[in-house]
Amino acid sequence: MPSLPRHSYYRFTTVQTRITGILNATVLILSVLLILFISVDTFQGIPFLENHAYMTFQFWVCMVFMAVFFIEMSFAKSKWRYIRRRWIFLLLSIPALNIINLLNLELDAETVYFLRFIPLARGGLAIAIIVGFLTHNRMASVFASYTAILVLVVYFCSLIIFEREQPVNPQIPDYPTALWFSCMVVTTLGCDISPVTVIGKVLQIVLSAMGTIMFPLFTVFITSTVMRLRQQRAGKAAAQHHAAPPPQQLQQQPPSHPS
């Protein structure tokens, strides 16, 4: 989980700043690897509960995420405020699949399938916040975070749609078609592909809602950026105008009269 030194509930020394930077890099790398791991399993049709390598990897990724949570909590001035703001990170870091296997719990296939994406959501959220943190101003940070969230949601939904729809829906024969469908739905342009499974229809609604919420925010950001650039140019022009020396006026000498 990335740290945000802009917030007042953090206190950082030089050592803590270096530790936080290492943790951020570790979380980012593990999040990307987790996304790649799940993507490869999805494309190859590998049952993830039977994939020992995936189960081991996602367990240790969850352990690292939980360790980062408690380390950053130790850096916070107000522990309870940190927990109130970040409890969702801890909840998403719990290795639910490993706990289910350890306790031999009997859950339906749909529930187990979606539990698989909990660490993925944790990694995606971390990527979005880190991307926003790397920007220089608050408006750009919000825009970068929202863009990362939108891209990741589209990608995750396209994976689920491909895996759920491809066996039963002839309109989605491969992953590029599922990705195209997700992009068209999230842009609210519409698509001639119709999902047939319940989860496909639900994700169609989710993507439409995401697009309806996100794209007006992008419009606001672009408008604010253009207005800010115009104000900066106007300010520079005014500063240059005031800094320029006044033009020297030729002094008119009175005409000389012949004596």
UniProtKB/TrEMBL annotation:
Record's subcellular location: Membrane
GO CC annotations on file: voltage-gated potassium channel complex
Key words, A-Z: Ion channel, Ion transport, Membrane, Transmembrane, Transmembrane helix, Transport
Pfam family, one: Ion_trans_2
Main location: membrane
InterPro entries, per database record: K_chnl_dom (IPR013099), VG_K_chnl (IPR028325), Volt_channel_dom_sf (IPR027359)
Nucleus keyword on record: no
GO molecular function, one term: voltage-gated potassium channel activity
Domain of life: Bacteria
Keyword Mitochondrion: no
Membrane-protein topology: Multi-pass membrane protein
GO biological process, one term: action potential
Domain (Potassium channel) ranges: 149-226
Name of the protein described by the UniProt record: Potassium channel family protein
Species per Swiss-Prot/TrEMBL record: Candidatus Amulumruptor caecigallinarius
